[in-house]
Amino acid sequence: MTRRSSHPTRWIAAALLAGSAGAAIASPNFYGSLSNFDVYNDTGSETHGFEIELHGVSGSDVTYTFGGDYNRYGSPRIDSFDGGIFVRYLSAYDIAQGAFLTATPVPSSFSPTDGHSCWSGGGAGYADSGCEHFGLGLNKNATSTTYRWLKGDAATGQITPVGGNVLIAAPVWQVIDPAPADPGQPAAAAPIVQAVIAPEPAENHEQYGEAQWVKVYTTEIEREVELEELLSDNAVVPREPSETEIEWVLFQAKPEGKDDGEGDELLLEKPLAGDLGGKKSVIRRYEFYEYVGAYNPEDHEAQPFDEADPAGAGEVGRYIGAQMAAANLAAAPVPEPSTWLSMLGGLAVVGLLRRHRMR
After folding, report:
1. SS3 of 261, please?
2. Which one in 33, 130, 131, 212 has a CA-CA gap of 20 to 30 Å to 175?
């Protein structure tokens, strides 16, 4: 279940060149790689901002951001670097008083937020909740995403990361081109859409990273899902036992010297069949939980007692968060019968987010 693809791949924003027999697959529309997530301040002290580090995109690829009057930090600032961007929510700083004007407090509890509890419209307790709601949309796929809390130095006015990376994986979408049946001819099989999440590596690259349990739910609906619907409390997001795709899988980064550090991603895929069967959207919900079982003391590899039933073995800890992703499928009317794909990515992080030292 956790493996790295060996197929030739392209990012989802590229055109799909091959289709099933008798039907062409048109270029996909990509609506966003992440959006709408809640995050608790688990750093142990008040913070003065939050940053999202995105690789493989530029500022012009950002279609919207969550902020303004709905967020104590307002709209974020976008800073570019070679190969990507930072989306930063920042407190203002009063030079005369030597103080930051906005802060996220330490929460008194880490209870599930169900999507919309951590912003100004989510309830009267927002100011003291220690929880924030951030989000953005992209018109292309980010190759990697990292989240961090930020803390200010009152003496200098500088704001820097604190507490390490937030341990929630964001998906990277890819399209797999099957090998053509004959040279120069379209492939007989349809392309395959992949969603891949990668675990956070350990600071010591000779060690395994922190382990987590992941559970995945999936469903299909007969319409296109909207980006703002990909929230943990929305009815379209799967969470029923009958919608379980993966009951439990251990999620842990390998050391660089182990299989060249490969094979630790969680990969889910779906062929782009010509017949959609009336289903217009495939939606997945990833749930992340702490692993509280034993580790190998030498290399930090998780040693679960029962991978088939970790909850029964007492090895599933605190609920960390949930991430939602959807693939919309519909028939294009022109120029010929074909299929187009639009991707939506949504992230709703609820519950306690554990601290992890930055690499």
Report:
1. helix
2. 212
Which neighbouring-strand residues pair with 309? none
Backbone angles phi, psi at 53, to 5 degrees: -100, 120
Helix (H, G, I), strand (E, B) or coil at 128: helix
| Tokens found for residue 14 | 């590229």
Per DSSP, the chain holds a count of helices (H) and strands (E) of 0, 24
- Whole-number Å distance between alpha carbons of 21 and 82: 42
- Per domain, the residue ranges of the chain are 1-33+171-354, 40-167
Q: Length of the chain, please?
A: 359
Per-residue pLDDT of the chain (359 residues), as tens digits, is 333 333 333 333 333 223 333 334 443 333 334 456 778 888 999 999 999 999 999 999 987 788 888 889 999 999 999 999 999 999 999 999 999 999 999 988 777 665 556 777 766 788 888 888 887 777 777 888 899 999 999 999 999 999 988 888 877 776 666 666 677 766 566 667 778 888 988 888 899 999 999 998 887 777 777 666 766 667 887 888 888 888 899 999 999 878 866 778 888 887 765 554 555 677 788 888 889 999 999 999 999 999 889 989 999 987 777 777 776 655 444 334 333 333 344 444 333 334 343 44
Task: Measure the CA dihedral 103/107/108/112, to 10°.
Answer: 150
What is d(CA 288, CA 168) in angstroms, rounded to the nearest whole number? 8
The neighbouring-strand residues paired with 246 are 216
Per DSSP, 227 falls in state: G
Question: 215-233 burial, b for 16+ CB within 10 Å, e for fewer?
Answer: bbbbbbbeebbebebbbbe
- CA 56/CA 173 separation, integer angstroms: 12
Structure tokens, 262: 């490969």
d(C-alpha 51, C-alpha 1), whole Å = 31
Sign of CA dihedral 254, 256, 258, 261: positive
Phi, psi of 65 (to 5 degrees): -135, 150
CB 191 within 8 A of CB 177: yes
